[in-house]
Amino acid sequence: MPPTGLEPCKMNRKKGDKGFESPRPYKLTHQVVCINNINFQRKSVVGFVELTIFPTVANLNRIKLNSKQCRIYRVRINDLEAAFIYNDPTLEVCHSESKQRNLNYFSNAYAAAVSAVDPDAGNGELCIKVPSELWRHVDELKVLKIHINFSLDQPKGGLHFVVPSVEGSMAERGAHVFSCGYQNSTRFWFPCVDSYSELCTWKLEFTVDAAMVAVSNGDLVETVYTHDMRKKTFHYMLTIPTAASNISLAIGPFEILVDPYMHEVTHFCLPQLLPLLKHTTSYLHEVFEFYEEILTCRYPYSCFKTVFIDEAYVEVAAYASMSIFSTNLLHSAMIIDETPLTRRCLAQSLAQQFFGCFISRMSWSDEWVLKGISGYIYGLWMKKTFGVNEYRHWIKEELDKIVAYELKTGGVLLHPIFGGGKEKDNPASHLHFSIKHPHTLSWEYYTMFQCKAHLVMRLIENRISMEFMLQVFNKLLSLASTASSQKFQSHMWSQMLVSTYGFLKSISNVSGKDIQPLIKQWVDQSGVVKFYGSFAFNRKRNVLELEIKQDYTSPGTQKYVGPLKVTVQELDGSFNHTLQIEENSLKHDIPCHSKSRRNKKKKIPLMNGEEVDMDLSAMDADSPLLWIRIDPDMSVLRKVEFEQADFMWQYQLRYERDVVAQQESILALEKFPTPASRLALTDTLEHEHCFYRVRMAACFCLAKIANSMVSTWTGPPAMKSLFTRMFCCKTCPNIVKTNNFMSFQSYFLQKTMPVAMALLRDVHNLCPKEVLTFILDLIKYNDNRKNKFSDNYYRAEMIDALANSVTPAVSVNNEVRTLDNLNPDVRLILEEITRFLNMEKLLPSYRHTITVSCLKAIRVLQKNGHVPSDPALFKSYAEYGHFVDIRIAALEAVVDYTKVDRSYEELQWLLNMIQTDPVPYVRHKILNMLTKNPPFTKNLESPLCNEALVDQLWKLMNSGTSHDWRLRCGAVDLYFTLFGLSRPSCLPLPELGLVLNLKEKKAVLNPTIIPETAAGNQEAASNPSSHAQLGGFQNPFSCSQEEEEIDMDTVHDSQAFISHHLNMLERPSTPGLSKYRPASSRSSLIPQHSSGSDGTPPTKPPWTVELARKGAGKEQSPLEMSVPAVPAAPLSLFAKEAAASKHGEHRRRHEHKKKKKKHRHKHRHRHRHDARERERDREPFAFSSPASGRSARSPSLSD
Amino acid sequence: RSGSKHSTNPADNYHLARRRTLQVVVSSLLTEAGFESAEKASVETLTEMLQSCDAGIKGMCHHTCFNVDTLPAYAKRSQRMVITAPPVTNQPVTPKALTAGQNRPHPPHIPSHFPEFPDPHTYIKTPTYREPVSDYQVLREKAASQRRDVERALTRFMAKTGETQSLFKDDVSTFPLIAARPFTIPYLTALLPSELEMQQMEETDSLEQDEQMDTENLALHVSTDDSGAEKENASVLQQNPALPGSRNGEESVIDNPYLRPVKKPKILSSRASWSLLLGTKSLASGRELG
């Protein structure tokens, strides 16, 4: 059965695939992309592509390709004109006249729209009809060459033009263009099969101005002048089979730097930045060496190119044999802070060259393997480059992030399985978006997904050892590289695609170990583990009684069963114990090795074999326990809340050598504001051998403790004397030494301590005068003349420190803030900020770090009521033309202002910017910041929440952001944050208050009418329809509920839906339709591969497919047309959707369980007939509404 | 001019003084001769006579047979009047005000008729020393406040002369902020901050040498990264004939496709691309893959 799009393929994985089964009825072998003209002034591109394909089924009469925003002039197959239809349902997800405003509806429709053009489901926006003359040819499975002429005018996504408005030629102006996008987005700039699983060889040609360079994938074969010698054509050849999604392009007046260590590597940057480029890339060869060594595999491509461009979509984007970076990663040797960050970006992109570009994936649900491996080997590089401490710290950080995210949103699923109509059809019903497609994912979710993927890879390594792990990688790579050198006919290319199954099989072959439980726990299932631990020491039995509880009912959690390592540090040494966590055992007895005998003066052995002297006086006299750690190796994705006495945390901080343990104890000590904690932290802070990040964390903890102990605190403010001792002159302690940042550890500490100190508060909850003077002095005496490094980050942090010292103004009757009643301390602060900000105009700092800090500080002053709250300043800094860091900082302030002052005007200003700003990253970031710091949320009344806003946002995500997946998902996130899943409460009631509940076959009150507050009482709510009000993760039924209730309101919608499709033909995106389609092909346009009936004589008009395809998300539409008598048959359509919610039983509430059982039964029953019914269902529909079908077709046929 | 005044005045003084002395002598002679008073005119006349007699005393001796030898006796006569020596008006020691050093004689190459050097004080320099401030604290303090003052003054000046923004609506002058101005190419100022340029300039002295060492090692490679593609092409094109030879000779020539010369368009290739455009025949695609 050729896929039609109703089932998002995925059958190959389920079958335990032997090889790769393409979801497409043809195989692509080679593609030519030729861009003959690029016009920077008009921002347009003209070119053609030629795809060489081999049909894999005899009766292939339609070829679906991906193409977005391209204007297609002409399509020829083997030199014969071919008819084509261009239809992109993602342009407008829900028809514009619809009154529907609930997100559930949108998300489903959006997922369906994406699915309808998903190449992995055999679909595409561009449907080309094979000319009848070639049918014979096709039946013999002979080669087809599809030649498509296209142009691109002012692309809004996919290709980004940067054209500075200065004098001079385009090259002199530094104008450049590059491809960008989120996941597979190549279809935005040329027609292709935009899938990671369709590999082919490439010939790429770009004709550009003679002063420009075109950088693309593969080997540059030659550069040839055009006849007028004004332009050059760059000919690239990529012989390694590569997916279209990994094709990229960058054109600009780049400066070229051949890597001095590796001549195959070439670096490109914008004019004037060559010195920075030299320094920045000087390290790259070491990364190459590292990866090649651990993978025992050469870099797969014959060359590598790095391009640094402005207005980057993401900081790092990896494509076949080329990576595109943000130009802002470039830095000189004088910059400390940026160096490790940039190196990390370089290393990350290189890891993705191996896994992600060279080795591609079979389907979206295998993405985790690639992200996991590239993230994992990147981690190994981190460990080697920055040391074990940094590595463990990073792992801990990533773990904390993913745990926090999963607990917040309800889980990240690495390997989603979507059986068509199976019980777990929707494995992510807790989310407000579909995870079936990368393009429907929230950006934050995707970030967390990558984070979890590499953590899970690490877990696998823990299980099978690193040696085996690397062997597996090597095996994947060598298979792929053998395959890549083969001809297409050998059918080996699919070896270059990785699948979950293949990867796991490889692991079991290499290691002989069964990691299935681990995979089941972390890959096939979402959620993290939440442990609560406490203990008691039984003196009589000399046994440690450990109690470990789990919370597996909250959203985002799962139950853990299996081994758990516990490390106990006793007087006699450190001992590891492996506990078995089982269903019902909470208590674990661990025998202790040592008696409490502290009278003997003896050194205490640590885990690493070191023996140290400890002052044991703080200990409990009866217990030999120094400290206990649960899962010290982070071999479970978990959050541990462990209770132990303060002195144990203090010992742990002082003597445990693992940085993660030290950090955990610092976090725990916040709750124990005692002199002993203070001492332990101070000692850590002073201890030079201690990891600098731990020392930095200790600073902040010390500040918190000092604030808690404010009434009993003795001596100077925390850290002051310490700082003086470390960084100030011996003779005059109030003056800081001239800067010398040769020791990075102390540099970071020097930066951090004042920031932490500024958080200190006295009994009046004000920042002590002494501290403020101290910081002001630091600023005053700062002297960088003798320093080898720039101090811009240091000064920026001093401004942050000033901002931290600000406390709310004492306000009398909301008086207006004027200069006269300005607090004298604030006046001093403001003086500094003014000077810094003004100096930046004359002598800017690297990346304008100081401006960024100043803007943040001004917002803090505004927020605390010292300075009148006013967004004008920030708005001017947020304008296009400022450095991106400044813009983001300014926009963040405006977002905050919008929230605090509930300003409708500013919100409108922001929304306008989201739609019009030239920089995609800024647009994305505004949405992101609005979501993080929303002006209101779904549960709050706000004057901002009105119908116009709802419409505006709806429009934004419905049609306004169709050119950028990331942006659209960002808009969805914002909509969810503001209004929740159901109909926004600020909307007027729909025209009809009754809805039909199809499942129960009765009319109920429209759930959207039920006020939001009523839904808060979820436990008591017995009416299932009220659950629709809740956040999706609270109620597994919410999705299905929405589906099943047909809003009478949407009767209009059905009509609108039809007319929408009628209009489709008049769209600018389908220019070829009426103009170019040859009349001869008119009648043969129709053939359709409806499921199972491929090749049968065409009976159905083309648009019925469209409707049916859309049906996946828009079940309502066919129904609505016949709403007066709700038929029984369409019910089956919903059965699938209802079953979708069946996933995620582990976190169901009890009262749901009964209901669930009942329903499940029903659903299963339904499901059995599902497929058949659907077929049947579609047929009658197609004929029952012939008017709609025919009329839709008529415009194209009539000319 | 002032010099002439100086010279006449002492001479006048001298004559006046002499005449006054002679008057006193005449008066005393008259007193000696028994006069109690004399008219001024007669005294004047006698003085005049004496003066001229004094001047021509020698001639007088000759012509009037005046015996000079009697003079000493006469001078020592007992009833003579003793006239106190006129108060020695301190010989006008030519005012050597502020003499500094010695007047320099002309060096040999300056002819002597040239005017003399002016007084040394007009060109001599006299270095004066003050005890240097060596207290570290004071130094730092001074450096810090000086820098701060300069910065403050400068920024205020800039703010006054240009557009500003203000944090307070009622007051625009206390904390004037130079207005934010967008750049056409914002990344250039951000990545190549002038602040660092200055710092680097200070350091270049010390670093330059080290860097030179480095670049020398890489010189061959670095020289290849010519910025302007156009320029590079031209130069490489020129070198082209020599290229094969040099490649044999030096192994250091990098074979990087981006450094290769741009080819001239060939008729053949153009026809091929035409055919591609027309879609009659495609280039490499089919052939490549067999």
TrEMBL record, chain B:
Subcellular location: Nucleus
Record-linked InterPro entries: BTP, Histone-fold, TAF8, TFIID_su8_C
Region entry Disordered, spans: 224-258
GO molecular function, one term: protein heterodimerization activity
GO biological process: DNA-templated transcription open complex formation; inner cell mass cell proliferation; maintenance of protein location in nucleus; mRNA transcription by RNA polymerase II; positive regulation of transcription initiation by RNA polymerase II; regulation of fat cell differentiation; RNA polymerase II preinitiation complex assembly
Domain Transcription factor TFIID subunit 8 C-terminal residues, every copy: 109-157
Chief subcellular location: nucleus
Keyword line: Nucleus, Transcription, Transcription regulation
Matching Pfam families: Bromo_TP (PF07524), TAF8_C (PF10406)
Domain named Bromodomain associated: residues: 17-52
GO cellular component: perinuclear region of cytoplasm; transcription factor TFIID complex
Keyword Transcription: yes
Family, as annotated: Belongs to the TAF8 family.
Protein name: Transcription initiation factor TFIID subunit 8
Originating organism: Jaculus jaculus
